[in-house]
């Protein structure tokens, strides 16, 4: 998979042996994949100071910096923000309550982009530039901006991936308390977006198992969501709820590598 130059370093780090998990191939993933922060200056400066304070702060694996994580998040926010802007600009695509909801989500994503840019710059870093996106994924979703169902299906894949992406980087922000707090604040809003988009499509607000039949669900987006072992405890041994209910009760992280594999389908 071709990774944008701005992301190549992150991709190289994320594919280190200790961070790898089994992934579908690009072809398989391609086939399977059918007012939030307020005053940015006020928030960005303290966060920038927090980022700069622990000089050289690294992930526990010793490879990924806090700024790397924030630039990774920024790229995902670029993707979502541009996707929703284009959807809202497409004539006749979104109407009524659906349009109102998507417009609000779009405002959130735009705020996330501005916040992350300000935070990275405030820390003395350089925000990555937005890649060039192809939301048809090379023609796989040719009607994404003319068919509301296709648009919402892709939106669900983006939102569910985004939630898991933020969760997957939490460990890399340990020790950077204010930064972790900010990331979790965005993570929780992304989860609300995911739930709302799923409900608009007639699905439940949560994920069941590793394959979601009501969405372009795919092994790439929902890999590992059927896990029932947490902190070494197999949840099936301590409760009588069904397997489906157990998988709904927990949400799994995605590695940076897995997220880049998914996002790369929409990056030129």
UniProtKB/TrEMBL annotation:
Pfam families: Ferritin_2. This is Ferritin-like domain-containing protein. It comes from the Bacteria. InterPro entries: Ferritin-like, Ferritin-like_SF. It comes from Neolewinella lacunae. The lineage of its organism: Bacteria, Pseudomonadati, Bacteroidota, Saprospiria, Saprospirales. Gene3D superfamilies: 1.20.1260.10.
